[in-house]
Amino acid sequence: MRIFLDTANLDEIRKGAAYGIVDGVTTNPSLIAKEGVPIEEQVKRICEIVDGDISAEVVAIEAKAMISEGLKLAKIHKNIVVKLPLIRDGIIACSALSKEGIRTNVTLCFSPAQALLAAKAGAYLISPFVGRLDDIGDVGMDLITSICKIYKNYSFKTQVLAASLRSPLHVVQAAEAGAHVGTLPYKVLDMLFNHPLTDKGLEQFLKDHAKAFEAK
Fold it and tell me: What is d(CA 134, CA 32) in angstroms, rounded to the nearest whole number?
């Protein structure tokens, strides 16, 4: 499973990229707004840090405007993936942009039926939101499993990008379900390293080494 960082913060992206395991970045209008920098400028900076898929989302909600905005975003860098909301106009825009050879990430997916529409429209990525479904008492990971099954049944090329992953457990479950990509905040990426037995074992190794050699 590829790992993307879900952030537009350059410091977080640099720290994550330093591990050598980050394959891409996803942004959205809220994350861009948090940084206070125009999207064209911010995603260009991100592309200079991570050599992988960088999702940049349109803010238009009408198909013609989405297509125009998507074409402009795609010209920023070869790694840009145009992110579109899963609404009727978004699917129209996805179909049009895909036919032009522009990769798209269809976001705000909350049902298998929606994911089927995105695949039919030629989406490169579909972004089902796990955590937000959990928030309303649903089982978000079931959506990942269902979409992966449907795409496999019909050999759709659209890749499943598990989004709204809020814990290491979410990441592992997404991988087990067959998601092609998991996108997560930097703090969750950092949490993947943690295990008390790793810390305990390393501490013991170093104590034993010091006892045997450093005292001499």
Answer: 25
For the entire predicted model, the pTM comes to: 0.96
pLDDT tens string 113-131 = 999 999 999 999 999 999 9
β-strand partners of 159: 125
Burial of 101 (0-12, 13-18, 19+ CB in 10 A): exposed
CA 130 to CA 124: how far, in whole Å?
19
User: Would you state the CATH architecture of domain 2-214?
Assistant: Alpha-Beta Barrel (3.20)
Rounded to the nearest angstrom, the gap between the alpha carbon of residue 61 and the centroid of all alpha carbons in its chain is: 21
Active site residue ranges: 83
